[in-house]
Amino acid sequence: MSVVRTQGSCVAIRSLSPSSSINRALTVLLLPEERLKRLKHRMKVYFDGSRPDHQEALRALWSATYPGQELHGLISDQWKEMGWQGRDPSTDFRGAGFISLENLLFFAKTFSTSFQRLLKKQGGKRAAWEYPFAVAGVNITFMIMQMLDLDASKPRTFIRSVFLQMLSENEWAFDLLYCVAFMVMDKQWLERNATYMEFNDVLKSTRAQLERELLMDDVLRIEDMPSYSLLC
């Protein structure tokens, strides 16, 4: 995976590599309508532990998160290390579906340094009762889905229109926005010295900040968002 760094920013341009199941289905160029259709489809796919491609994605997430560390099984106490609620991570995908796993995998592969920092809770003064990393990621996916409101028959906010323009330029706009959102959430978590009981409040303030940045006049791409600079 290539990375181009520029002076004054941590990340400028890089080759984006989604999960293999999605990558195989992609054509080189997609019309804006096709990109929206594909994203809506991704949002409707439930995680199915019996599907080989879903199992593959889960194993890929483990490998990207803990390189060189053997996974003993798709149901294992090891998953708790990543911040899943129990031995079987599939039970935590119910809220946002398979796309939430894809988002985590995209984050781990595309911005590995930032991903590892959040996973290991590095930087800042941390609470004794921290948010569980993986479950927080699922909640962030669900929050973004609600914010963008892509299934509404008519746009109810200007945020949706702004995002659709970004999606027309970059088919991975949703996944990039997810990575930004995770960084914003953790930054606000630290600034508030929050504990787990305040997670929903932090998530609401994260959404508000994302909306403010998306509506800025000079923000035409996810990469133009001020908080994009948090990613490494």
UniProtKB/TrEMBL annotation:
Q: Which InterPro entries match?
A: ELMO_dom, ELMO_domain-containing
Where in this chain does the record put each ELMO domain?
Answer: 53-214
Name of the molecule in the record: ELMO domain-containing protein C isoform X2
- Organism, by scientific name, is Herrania umbratica
